[in-house]
Amino acid sequence: MEQLSLRFCALGLAALCAATCLRAQEFRFGGGYNMSNVQESGPEHWTGRPGYQFGADLQLGDLWFVRGGAHFQVRNLEFITTGLDSAGAADAINREYRYTERSLRVPLMLGRNLIRISDEPAFNAYVMAGPTALFALSTELSDDELEVDARRTQWLIGFGGGVTFGFVFVEGSYGVAMSDIFQGEPLQTNPKVNQFCLNAGVRLALAR
What we know:
This protein is mainly β. 9% of the residues lie in helices and 63% in strands. Strand 6 (153-165) and strand 7 form a beta hairpin.
């Protein structure tokens, strides 16, 4: 996994360096809402809860573009466990746990605009796709009785699109998880968690 992370970073740097020769360059600052979609809920009935993220991206390109960024993200999940009585049988008492994960979200996207940015349109639309790495910063479980160890790096493959109105942008994306969220098997289910993100923010042009 560490080798994959290094390759991802190298690929990102190569793509951004290669794209600097393109005319249009801009920074994007924004944030928004995320919602998790668990691929397999399992016997713990994993479900997603709302979260949020904010950060910045550097976008290089005109009609076609490459975008890389860094975002602080908070992702929330919950699950249920059933306790056992002294005889080892289920006691029919369900215990609900809330899991919060804070991470550095690093997307690398390739996209295409409807209209060249260098034409400075008042309205534009775009589509994009690419990998995203989540580097775990901290985790929190609502009950200290259970111990979980989050993966240091999780991977998603995502796609999305958005619109721009002058210096304002609004976009949505969906990422499909390629890795489990935990190291080892702390629970019966080690889920893969897809993610929907909705962001809005401002664009700062560096060159046209």
